[in-house]
Amino acid sequence: MLTHYSTEEVGRLAPDALGDALERGEIVHFPRCPIELPDEADLKFLREDLATHLRNKNVSYHPETDSVPGLKKSDPVRTERAQRILKQHARRVEAFLTRTMPTLTRDWIIGTSSFRPIQEKGRNLSAHASNELVHIDAGAYGPTHGDRVLRFFVNVNPAEDRVWATRGTFPQLYERFGRAARITPDTRKRASLERGALDQLRTGFLRTLASAGLPQAMLIDSSPYDRTMRQFHNYMKDEPAFRDDTSSEVEIRFAPFSAWMVLTDMVSHASLSGQYALVNTFLLRLASCRLPQFAPYRILSAA
Ligand SMILES: [Fe+2]
Predict the structure, then answer these.
(1) pLDDT of 100-127, one tens digit each?
(2) How would DSSP label each residue in 103-141?
(3) What is the mean pLDDT of the chain?
(4) 3-state secondary structure of 163
(5) Distance from the alpha carbon of residue 57 to the mean position of ligand 1, in angstroms
(6) 270: buried, middle or exposed (CB in 10 Å: 19+, 13-18, 0-12)?
(7) What is the pLDDT of residues 249-276, one digit of tens each?
(8) How far is the CA of 262 from the centre of ligand 1 (A)?
């Protein structure tokens, strides 16, 4: 489940080896982050200065607008510094991923480059929003229609591990809990994952809004696949029989300045504790997968 790669090993890997590992449901772990990180002064700024101004939020660089929304306009020096750091980090992560995973990154959508300032333990969020409960991710930037969600993490806390829990991969969980969660073709509302007439109407309407200057409209779009994944996500967080049974749970500790990446629609995960992480999100095309037989879309489609 957790596969370790030293920096030297990464340099010797065959093209697509890391991508294949992700598609098989492995958490790809780098005991030492394989890319250059922001320097210590910039990390200190994120941890000590920026974090105190944003107690309840992530800070995210959005490439589509080349901006970091949510920071006070009245504080341009702090905003520009945060933007520079997160944008530069995004470039480094992107360069590493396109070099090591040329097939899986083909036609990808580059998402946000975020800093998470909050201590994950005891955030007291609602169950559906809580990172402390094991779940798989459903959706990213609106519906995915079966595309894959990749997240690249770096623990930039100089002293504290970031601690995760997992209970296995989507195929394993589907096998055990798919019927109870009513997401198998014979138990869910609609067997087909093809988008119906209503879905197409809604998407068309939202596209019109988006092209009229409201790009956020696409975030509320949906698809049968994304609704099914959302149902499984909610089942995992709501259903006591699943939520409270930790017998299959494995704890993983990510040391300071280690990095890891994972398909979060594939590998169940919870953030139990830890503070200060850099997190970069990407949407990978199902059509670019080399092992699509392991993808949730294919598994959910099989009768
Ligand atoms: Fe998640």
Answers:
(1) 999 999 999 999 999 999 888 887 777 7
(2) TTTTT-EEEEEEEE-S-STT----TTT-SSS-B----SS
(3) 91
(4) strand
(5) 16
(6) buried
(7) 999 999 999 999 999 999 999 999 999 9
(8) 10
Q: What are phi and psi of 293, to 5 degrees?
A: -65, -20
Residue of higher predicted confidence among 56 and 95: 95
CA 77 to centroid of ligand 1, rounded, Å: 32
CA dist 76 and 72 (Å) reads 8
Centre of ligand 1 to C-alpha 151, Å, is 9
Q: Write down the pLDDT at residue 14.
A: 93
The helix/strand count (H/E) of the chain reads as: 10, 10
Cα of 230 vs centre of ligand 1, distance in Å, is 12
Residue with tokens 């939020």: 57
Per-residue confidence (pLDDT) for residue 208, from 0 to 100: 83
**Residue 129's CB: how many other CB atoms inside 10 A?**
9
- The whole-angstrom separation of Cα 142 and Cα 123 is 25
Residue 38: CB atoms within 10 Å: 20
How many Cβ atoms from other residues are within 10 Å of residue 121's Cβ? 13
Give the span between the Cα atoms of 209 and 296, in whole angstroms.
30
Please indicate whether residue 191 or residue 288 has the higher confidence score (pLDDT).
288
The region, left, alpha or beta by phi > 0 then psi within -120 to 50, assigned to residue 237 is alpha
Q: pLDDT tens for residues 30-89?
A: 999 999 999 999 999 999 988 777 755 789 999 988 988 877 766 888 889 999 999 999
C-alpha of residue 100 to centroid of ligand 1, in Å: 24
| Token couple for 212 | 């009229």
Q: How far apart are CA 47 and CA 31, in angstroms?
A: 21
Residue 147 DSSP SS3: coil
Residues pairing with 3 in the sheet? 28
- Residue 218: left if φ>0, alpha if ψ -120 to 50, beta else—which one? alpha
Which residues, other chains included, contact 203 with Cβ-Cβ below 8 Å and sequence gap of 6+?
195, 221
